[in-house]
Amino acid sequence: MGCRQSTLATEPNQIKKSKEADDALEGSPRVELAPSQANRPQSADGVRGTDSPRDNTFKLQPIPPFAGGPQVGQLPAGSGKSEKKTEHAVVAAPPPAKPPPLRRLKSALKSASKNFDKPAGIGSISTKRTVVFVLGGPGCGKGTQCERIVKEFGFVHLSAGDLLRLEVKKASPLGKKCDALMKEGKLVPVEITLGLIEKAMKASGKKLFLIDGFPRAIDQAKAFEAKICRPDKVLFLECPKEVMQQRLLKRGESSGRSDDNEATIIKRFETFEKESLPVIGHYNSIDKNIVSKVSSVPPPDQVYKTIQEILRKTLEAQAST
């Protein structure tokens, strides 16, 4: 069967269809070119052969490549990929990258918010942590007041002396060294005491810390500030030496503490006046609002009322920042 040319000219030798053939073809469905027909022979003017006498389909010519650009159906050199070459392919710019899913953005924002304003100190401590030091001479009543503070405000109470005595009780090499120094009324090296406090703070997982009996020297104060943080409040319990001595001797009758004897008490007073009192001056020089002096001579209930008011104001100020 012949084919109709794109010029609509009829070849001289074209065979005319009979009326019977026309009647047979009329009403038949139009036959679309299958993919395999793309390779049929074509005439000189570019028109492919077809089984349909009314098919005037023209062959599309390939689009020439852009000057200096990659050839049709080819990827840029060095892409390391290959692509099947087609006659009508057009090189186009890659589609824009899809934006990250909303859930991924939310996750990133949540992660960033957790680390915002994170302190340079202990990573496990909350950014809203509050640290209060309770300082004062031996026998001024630090332990008594700390018990009430913990009960009302929920602080984690860390006593430097208790942590050291616990280490002594373990009878470890470190504990034996601490025991010898404490019996002589001397200060334990700052790296030991600070290490025990830091370990206890991490283990608690809390954000309110009440630390008594530390720092007892300026180097301890500076080491705590450098490694952990600056305290939010320093409670200094003032008490005359005579009153403190009477309390310690009475406590020694039942406490069983090795440092609650008269000879050791005198040495402890000397160490406090020489090493610990300058710590109060150190914090006053940083910020006069950090230190709050409270007389511990009155009965414990009266002393606590003063401390209670100070801590409420401190926590309110922390909550507003």
From TrEMBL:
Which NCBIfam families would you find in this protein's record?
UMP_CMP_kin_fam
Q: What name goes with this protein?
A: adenylate kinase
Q: Which GO terms describe its molecular function?
A: AMP kinase activity; ATP binding
Record keyword Cell division present = no
One Gene Ontology term of the biological-process aspect is: pyrimidine nucleotide biosynthetic process
Origin species = Riccia sorocarpa
Asked whether the keyword Mitochondrion is assigned, the reply is no
Keyword annotations of the record: ATP-binding, Cytoplasm, Kinase, Nucleotide-binding, Nucleus, Pyrimidine biosynthesis, Transferase
Tell me the segments the record calls region Disordered: 1-102
EC number(s) per entry: 2.7.4.3
Sorted alphabetically, which InterPro entries does this protein's record hold?
A: Adenylat/UMP-CMP_kin, Adenylat_kinase_CS, P-loop_NTPase, UMP_CMP_kinase
According to the UniProt entry, which residue ranges have a biased composition of type Polar residues? Answer: 1-15
Checking PROSITE patterns in the record gives:
ADENYLATE_KINASE
Record field: catalytic activity? UMP + ATP = UDP + ADP
Q: Which Gene3D superfamilies match?
A: P-loop containing nucleotide triphosphate hydrolases
Q: Name one Pfam family in it.
A: ADK
Q: Which family does it belong to?
A: Belongs to the adenylate kinase family.
